[in-house]
Amino acid sequence: MSRFTTLVGCIVLIGTFAHIGEAQTAGLGIRPMRLEMDVVPGKPKTASFIIESPPSDVDVRGRLLLSLSDWVIREDTTVTYHDAGTQQRSASPWIIFSPSDVNIASGQERLVRVTANVPEGTPPGVYTSAIFVQERPPAREPRKGERIVYFRFRYAVTLYVIVQPVSGKGEIGDFLLARDSGGMRLICQLKNTGTRHLRPSISWFLRSGAEEVIAEKNVETTVLLPSATTREILQIPTLPPGEYEIEAQVDFHDGQPLQTIRRKVDVAPLSASQ
Amino acid sequence: MTSRYILSATAWVVTVWFLVSPHAALCQAEWSVVVDGAPVPLPRPVVGNGRDLFVPLLPVTRALGFQVEIAPALKTLRLRRGAGAPIEYDGRSGEIRYGPVVAGQIRDYQQLIISEPVEELLFPVDGLITLLAVDVQMDVGGSTVYISSSTNPFNVPSTHGMGLSNLDYSVGITKAGDSEGYYTLLKSGALAGGIPLNSTLLLAGERSDVRLQQGTVIAQLGDHRELTVGDQSSISGPDALISSVRGIGYSAPFQGFEAAVYGGRTAGTVGSQIGAASVANYDSTIVGGTLRTRRFDGDLSFAASGFSGPERKGTSAGAAFTKTTTKHQLRAQVVFGTFSGLGLRSLRPAVADVPSSVEETTPVLAEKIQADGPALGISFFDTYKPIEPLAFTLQLERYGANFLTPREDSKFNAQSTQRASASMRPLSGLSLHGGVSRRKYLAGDPDVLHAFDYGANGIIPAVPWLQLGYFRVIQNGQNAASRLRMSQYSATMASLQYSGSVMYSDLNFSTSRARTLNVMLSRNLTTWGQLTLHDQLELDAMHRYGAEWRLNIPRGDLRIGLDRWTSMRSTDGYFVPIVGFGFRVGDQRLVATYTGERGTHTFTFTIGGPLVVRDDLRRDADGRLRVISQATLKGRVFLDTDGDNVFDPETEIPMPGITVWLDEQVSAVTDAAGMFRFDRMKAGTHGVRADLAEVPADMIFSDSGERRVALLPFRENVQNFAIVRTGSLTGKVTYLDHSDPEKPVQKSLGDARVIADSDHDTYSDIGGNITIGSLKPGSYQLKVDPETVPEGYVASVEPPRILIRAGEVVRGVQIRLALQPRSTIITDLPKQQSVSSPE
B749: how many CB neighbours lie within 10 A of its CB? Predict the structure, then answer.
C-alpha cells in the first residue's frame, strides 16, 4: 500500500471519530455524492454537484480544497484511494473541475462543475475517478517545541464516466457460511463479467431445515465494477449446531432475471480445541 | 412645497424601512450606479436591497438621454428620448406604456409616489428596467448596479397603423341523411387607424348555398363611443323592441344618458339550417333609438322605433325600468304605438314551468291574426323575497289586440297574461312551489286559459344521495283543444361513483296523451372513463335503450355507444351506433361524432381554435387606447472566442444543452444551435439566468449569467449569453526573513491570501505556492491581503499586471514581501553662530 493511500485511510478513519480541533467548518453536505456521466468520446460532458454548509448559530467559515483521486474496490469490498491517474480505467486524466478551492460559510452553498473530456477512440467501458473535498490545512509550520495534530473530514464524490455501449452481467459465484473469531457470517461472492458496473441487492434467508425461516434481510451491496469480483459479507446470528439451509436472491438490476442460490449446511458443535 | 414635504417624508419612510429590515447590513452599503460603463453621480443615496433597490431616476435617465416630466396630479411620469415614442408611467395603475402599448406593471406600485421635484424621485430598479428598456445586472458584493442600454430594436405600434391582434375560428360540417350543412365562424380583434375593432362573421348554408349569414364589426371610438356595422343581436331598450338588426348602430354618452341609434334591416322570422345556429331572415326595415341611464337605484330606459316589413309595420315608443335589491327583482315597461299587419297567436301551454321535454311533445297550434291601429303594451314582473326560504312572483302582461313587433313572436301579440306563484323551503331538504295563471287572447278566436301548477322537491335525510320530485300542471280553456294535464315524478341520485335518474311523465294535451319513462344510470370508472346506461320508453310509441362509454385519452376524449330503437306499435327496430372523439392539438380543438339513426345517418365534424393570438386592445378609464400584448424572449448561448460578446457563426461555437431559466419558474434548454426561446410571456421586467451547472468546468459566462431584463411586446427581445474559456495563474509567495539582520534570507510564505478580483483569491501553501483558476480572460493585478502577511511587510508582484488568455496558464508569478523601509525625517537647521573655543 502506498504511503499516500495509508495516509488517506488514516485521515478518513481518524477524522470520522476525532474531535475537530481547529476545523473551521462544522460539516458539509454534498449532493449528489455520485456523478454518472454518459459521454461520447470527443465531446465534452459536464455535470455538477453542490457543496453546502449547513446553517449554524455561530458563523462558521472555511476554505475548501478540491482534488482528484483514483479509487478501487477490493474483493473484500473495502475502498482504497490512490493518486489520480495511477489506476487502470482511471478517468482522472480526462476530468477538469471548477473551482479547485472555494470559501464557504454557514448557510452557503457552492456549485462545482465537473467536465469529462474523453478523447476520441476511447473504447467503451466504465471509467472511474473521485473528487476529494476537504478543508485547507494551515500552511504554518509548528513553532519550536509545538506539536499540533489536525483532524479533518474528507469527502469523496465518486465519478463514473461511461462510454457506451456497455452492459453489466452479474452472476453469483458462491454462497457459503463461514465462522471465525468474529462469529458467523454468510459470504456471497458476486461477479460482474460485463462492461458496466452493477449495484446488486441481496435478499438472503436462513432456514432451519428447509422450512422455518430464522433470519432474513435485504441488503444493498457495494457497487460491482466491470470485470470485478466481490465477497459480500452478511452478518447473521450465531447458530446452534444443526442443519440449515441458506439462500440468497440477488437482483443485479441488469434487466436479467433474479438469481437465487441455496445450499444446505451443517453447523457442527465447536470442539474443545476450537 | 407640499409635494416636496410628501416626497421627503416618503423617501424617509422608505429609507428607514429598509434600514431596519433584516438586510440592513447590505442596505447600509453605499450603492453606486454605472450606466453603459460610466459611473453616474447620484444626488442622493440608493436605498433598498436587491430587487427592491430604489435609485434616483433623473441621473439615470439623463445618462441615457431621456427627457422627464412629472404630472403629480395624474400621478404620471412621462419620458421621451429624441423623436422616439413617449413613455409613460401611470401611478394609478402601475402601468408603464410605450405609446399605447402596455410594456409592464410595477409590482407594489401603490408604494411609489410620483411627486416633484423630479431630482428627488426614487424609482425601483425593476420598474426602471421596463421604463427605460434597459438590462440590469446587480453586483451585490460590489454594491453596484450596472445598467446597459438595450440594443434590441423597439417598434412602438402606431395608433394609425392597422393590424390583426387575434383571430379565432370554428369550422363545422354536418351531414344528416342526404343533407349537408356547413358553417364557419370567425372572431377577430384588430386595430385600424388606432381604433380597436372586434369582428364576428358567420358563414353557413347547405351544400353549395353557403353565404354570409351574420357579420358584425364593432369599432370602439373611445370616450365610450361605439360604432356597430352589421348584425346586432340585441338592441337595448324595452323588451318589446328587442330585435336583431342588420345595419348600422352608434352609441355615445348624451346629456347623462347612454344614447344609441340604429337603422337597417331586421329579422321578421328566424329559420334554422343543418349544422348552424338559428338564422335570421332580414325582411323588414327598422330605425330606432334608445336612451339609458341610471336612476332611482335602477336602470331607466326610453326607446322608440319604426319598422316596416312584408307582413307588418308599426311605430312605437316606450319606457322601461329595472331594479334589483336584496328583496326585489323588479322589471316594468310600457310601450305605445300604432301597428298594422299580421301577428302570430300560439296556443301552446300557458304555464311557464312546463319542462322543455314536455313542451317539445306538445303539438304546435298557431294562427295568424290581423292587427290595425293603436295599441298599448304593458309588462310588470316582480319577485319578492320577504325572508330567504320564501319567494313570491307576480307577472302581469298585456299587449293590445293590435300590438305587433318586428319579429314574428306570439309572446307580444294580442294577449293578456297574469301569473302568481310562490316557492318556499319549509325544511332544509324540502322545497315546495306552486302557481296560478290566466291567459286571455285579445284577438282572433277569443279564449281564456286558466292553469295552476304545484310541485315539490326534496331529499330523505337517511338517503342524502337521493332526490325526489313531483310536478303537476292543470290547464283549462274554453276550447277543449287547449286543455292540458301533466304529472311528472322524478328521482335523482348522485354519489362519487354513481349518478342516475328516473323520470316518469304523463301528459294529456288536447286529445293526445304521452307517457314517458326515462332512466339513466352512470358509473364513473376513474381512469377507464364513464359508462352510462339509458332507457327511454314512450308507452304506445317507442322504446330506446343503450349504453355509452366515454374515455379521456391524452389530449382528448373518446365516445362510443350503441342504442336499440324499437317500435311499440310494430315489430320494427334497429340499432343506432354512436361514435365520437375530440382531440386538442396545441390550441386547436377537433371534434367528430357519428350517429347512425336509420335513414338519417348524421356525421358532424368541427375544428376550431385561435389562429392568431397577439394582443388585447382595450380602452382605459380615460378613454385612451391600450394595447396589452405578450412578449417573446430568445437568445443564444455560445463560446465567445474573441471576447467581443457577439456571436460569429464562422468562428464561434454554439453551446447546446445549457438550461436557461426565466424568473426561476420556467426553463428552456439550448438546442444544437445554442438557441433558447420563451413565447407568450407577460410583458415587463423578468429575471433571466443561464445555468452555470451545465457549462464546462474550464469555461465561464463572460458576465454573471444572470440579468434583469425588460420583455417588451412588438420587439425582438434577445438576450445572448457569451461563454469564455478561463485561464489560470501559478506563482510563489516569498518573504525576506530578517531573523539574522546581517544575512536576510528569502523564504516561502504560507497562508498568504492572494487576491485576483472579488471572485477569485487563494492562499499560499506551506511552500508559498499559489494557483488561481477559473479566471476570465483579461488583465489582473494581484494583491496580498495585508492581514495575512507579517507586520510591516509589503508585497511586490512580478509582473505587476498579468494578462490572462483563454485556456492558458500563466506561470512563474512572483510575489515578494519585504519590510517597508522606514521613512526618515531630515530637518535642516540654520547655521549656528560660531562658538569660541578656548585656546
Answer: 25
| Chain A touched by B829 (CB under 8 Å) | no
Neighbouring CB atoms inside 10 A of A41's CB total: 16
Asked if B692 is an interface residue toward chain A (Cβ–Cβ < 8 A), one would say yes
Give, in order, the Cα–Cα distances in Å from B204 to each of B207, B273, B594, B609: 10, 8, 20, 18
Q: φ, ψ for residue B535 (rounded to 5)? A: -145, 125
Cβ of residue B656 closer than 8 Å to a chain A Cβ: no
Q: What is the pLDDT of residue B615?
A: 60
Q: Is the CB of B694 less than 8 angstroms away from the CB of A46?
A: yes
Give phi and psi for B134, each to the nearest 5.
-120, 165
Q: How many helices (H) and strands (E) does chain A have?
A: 1, 17
Neighbouring C-beta atoms of residue B655, cutoff 10 Å: 22
The pLDDT tens digits of the residues spanning A175-184 come to: 999 988 888 9
Query: Could you check whether the bond before residue B22 is cis, i.e. omega within 30 degrees of 0?
Result: no
State how far the Cα of B52 lies from the Cα of B18, in Å rounded to an integer: 9
Q: Is B737 on the interface with A (CB under 8 A)?
A: no
Rounded CA gap, B100 and B82, in Å? 18
* Interface test mutation site (partner A, options B140, B670, B695, max chain A beta carbons within 10 A): B695
Angle at B630 between CA B624 and CA B633, to 5 degrees: 140
Residue B194 is predicted with a pLDDT of 67
Cβ partners under 8 Å of residue B149, min gap 6: B36, B64, B134
Chain A contact for B695 (CB, 8 A cutoff): yes
CA angle (A97, A103, A105) in 5-degree steps: 130
Asked if the C-beta of B670 comes within 8 angstroms of chain A's C-beta atoms, the answer is no
Of B750, B762, B773, the CB nearest to A98: B773
Q: How many other CB atoms sit within 10 Å of the CB of residue A224?
A: 25
Alpha-helical segments (H) within B323-379: 356-361
Distance from the B65 Cα atom to the nearest Cα atom in chain A, whole angstroms: 40
B769 in contact with A at a CB cutoff of 8 Å? no
Q: CA-nearest residue of chain A to B752?
A: A139
Closest in B697, B761, B771 to A98, CB measured? B697
Which whole number is the average pLDDT over B374-382? 93
Q: ipTM score of the complex?
A: 0.77
The candidate with the shortest Cα–Cα distance to B583, out of B560, B566, B607, B547, is: B607
Please tell me if residue A113 touches chain B, with a CB cutoff of 8 Å.
yes
* Highest mean pLDDT (candidates A235-239, B18-22, B265-269): A235-239
> Could you give the angle at the alpha carbon of A90 between the alpha carbons of A88 and A94, nearest 5°?
140
Collect all residues of chain B within an 8 Å Cβ-Cβ radius of residue A115: 696-698
What confidence tens digit (pLDDT) does each residue in B456-484 have?
Answer: 999 888 887 889 999 999 988 877 777 88
Decide if A44 touches B, using CB distance below 8 A.
Answer: yes
Answer whether residue B824 shows pLDDT above 90.
no
Q: pLDDT above 90 covers what percent of chain A?
A: 62
- Distance CA(B451)–CA(B475), nearest Å, equals 4
Taking the whole predicted model, whether its pTM rises above 0.90 is answered as no
| H or E, element range at A226 | none
CB nearest to A46's CB, from B697, B761, B763: B697
Binary contact (A98, B726; C-beta < 8 A): yes
Is residue B211's pLDDT more than 90?
no
- What is the rounded CA–CA span in Å between residue B635 and residue B645? 13
| CA–CA distance, B120 with A51 (Å, rounded to integer) | 45
B355-363, Cβ contacts within 8 angstroms, sequence gap of 24 or more: B355/B471, B355/B488, B355/B505, B357/B505, B357/B516, B358/B486, B358/B488, B358/B505, B358/B507, B361/B507, B361/B509, B361/B514, B361/B516, B362/B484, B362/B507, B362/B509, B363/B509, B363/B510, B363/B512
β-bridge mates for residue A160, sequence order? A36, A128
- In this predicted model, which residue has the larger pLDDT, B148 or B276? B148
